[in-house]
Specification:
The protein has one domain: Jelly Rolls (Sandwich). Strand 6 and strand 7 form a beta hairpin. By secondary structure, the protein is an alpha+beta fold. The protein has 3 helices and 17 strands. It is globular and about 45 Å long. Strands 1, 5, 6, 7, 8, 10, 14 and 17 form an 8-stranded antiparallel β-sheet that branches. It has a 3-stranded antiparallel β-sheet with strand order 13-12-15, with no helix packed on it. The two termini are 24 Å apart.
Length: 213
């Protein structure tokens, strides 16, 4: 990581980072096509495994009745497709690396989990203000930062607003947003067509173990 990136790192806990062109248009289209062939889910995935292990079996779907639905405009949860792709996660991590702090809260940067999610918002769908939960793995890694990548921009509405820091980011295919889990986020309602975003978490570990050990 460059010295400039390390200087910026302490400010990331209170700032939104926007990085353009983390994916090229062809990659964005391919991810949408891959997700659109899957059965879109409205539940979450339970993955009881270490972060540095490839998923050996399909995720077990579990509902979250205790967690309030953040979707606005309709009565369902946002639909998502699971994308289990370690190479894609590694590629995304390298594109984001210089904007990520090397350490946070006494833990070392570990990377992204291979399991990513593609969210689909249809016309009339958006989210109310919400923050992201911390996720943990069986080997002690904890997520601290959220990543949202716009996969398309051929829709109306659908900007992402961060009311606690007074910024609204418009969609651009390949544009990534990195922000702390506790930053409030609103996905503006999609007014026309469909919006697709890739969602991931950045993990940190107090005792990081390399892949394969």
């Amino acid at each position: 990581m460059s010295p400039a990136a390390r200087q910026r790192a302490p400010d990331l806990a209170s700032e939104l980072v926007v990085i353009n062109n983390v994916f090229d248009p062809a990659t964005c289209r391919a991810l949408i096509a891959e997700a659109d062939t899957d059965r879109w889910l409205s539940t979450t995935a339970e993955i009881p495994k270490a972060a540095n292990e490839r998923q050996g079996a399909p995720p077990r779907r579990v509902t979250e009745p205790e967690r309030a639905c953040h979707l606005a405009g309709v009565g369902d949860r946002p639909r998502f497709a699971v994308i289990d792709d370690p190479l894609l996660a590694l590629r995304l991590f390298y594109r984001l690396a210089e904007a990520l702090p090397a350490t946070r809260e006494g833990s070392e940067l570990a990377g992204l989990k291979p399991l990513l999610r593609c969210l689909r918002f249809r016309r009339g769908e958006g989210t109310r203000a919400h923050s992201e939960p911390i996720r943990e793995t069986t080997d002690g890694q904890r997520s601290q930062l959220s990543v949202v990548v716009f996969l398309n921009d051929n829709f109306s509405g659908g900007a992402v607003e961060f009311p606690s820091i007074g910024r609204t980011i418009q969609a651009r295919a390949g544009r990534a947003l990195v922000f702390p889990h506790d930053a409030l986020r609103i996905d503006h309602v999609v007014e026309r067509a469909r919006k697709f975003v890739l969602v991931a978490e950045v993990f940190y570990a107090p005792h990081w173990q390399p892949y394969g050990r």
